[in-house]
Specification:
This is Entericidin A/B family lipoprotein. Pfam families: Entericidin. Belongs to the EcnA/EcnB lipoprotein family. By secondary structure, the chain is mostly helical. The protein is built from 1 helix and no strands. 93% of the residues lie in helices and 0% in strands. It is rod-shaped and about 65 Å long.
Length: 43
């Protein structure tokens, strides 16, 4: 019973980290694209 609970908690923790990484990566890409658009419009 304890092992199952610990494995479940570990799996949820790992999944939340992976989801967080994808979210941060997406925000970084959006910011980068916005910066590139600003640079292109300043020429």
């Amino acid at each position: 019973m304890k092992r199952t609970l610990l494995l479940s908690i570990a799996a949820l923790f790992t999944l939340s980290l992976l989801a967080g990484c994808n979210t941060v990566r997406g925000v970084g890409q959006d910011i980068e694209e916005g910066g590139e658009a600003i640079q292109e419009s300043s020429y």
